[in-house]
Amino acid sequence: MPIRSRLPRCLVVAGLAIAPAVIAPTVAAGADGARGEPKPKTMQQVLDASKPSDWRTLDPADTLYLELPGGRVVIELASAFAPLHADNIRTLVRQKYFDGLAIVRVQDNFVTQWGDPEGENEARARPFGEAKRTLAPEFTRSSEGLAFTRLDDGDVFAPQVGFSNGFPAARDPASRQAWLAHCYGMVGAGRGNEAESGSGAELYVVIGHAPRQLDRNIATVGRVVKGMELLSSLPRGTGPLGFYEKPEQRVPITSIRLAADVPATERSRLERLRTDTATFRALVESRRNRRDDWYLVPAGRIDLCNVPLPVREARD
Q: How many CB atoms lie within 10 A of CB 119?
């Protein structure tokens, strides 16, 4: 399928299991801790008080290093949501499929996309080797069996939203289906009009306001955990949909490697705040009702895609 046709029609799927944790909104007493109540903690104070068990290290088998001229982008694969795509991406990476390809599209307030610039030309397109050219959609999956920390603030696009193992997600109790949400930094696999036409050979990352209309229409395969600035600050494409019109405009990909295949001394030692902890629930509340000195009126609500998902250098 032509590369230009694949992204606008992409989708995600993920399954989550109902868990008792609910991140419910509270009524703020006031930004100055009125009524004699202690002033609630800021997000930084919540993080400063976190325990080592509140954090988890990235699994090297689920971590990609996208090396660009400007530096390294670290991506965590969502294998629990899109296992077929994650496996195919690992195969492509280990075959060094992406090495020497390019970022081909940067559309303002939407996505940065990378893949084979010659993908439309069968005679010149890079061979897939042992990787599959098409995969089952993986747009949604059963919500049974996956942890889900619910965000009880309401949502326009789904009956319920929340977090599963560090990824923003949604679910529908009636259909027992769940899926990943297109928040900033989420990575998806481009496809054509046919639901099964994606492979993971064309990937994109959301760099603008969350395009949640893509939810359940494309396989969301992961999330950038470090290096978003290397993707979001690139020059915008001058062609339709933000595609680069000239080869010299494209940003070359030095390589993509699986962290498990990189020597331990060369890995990025990162850990993410677990989203199934009391610390994370306190963090959400600190952002739902901001008590920083600048804020005068706490909002009382928070959108799924506005909840921070902290990442830090691993502690010994």
A: 20
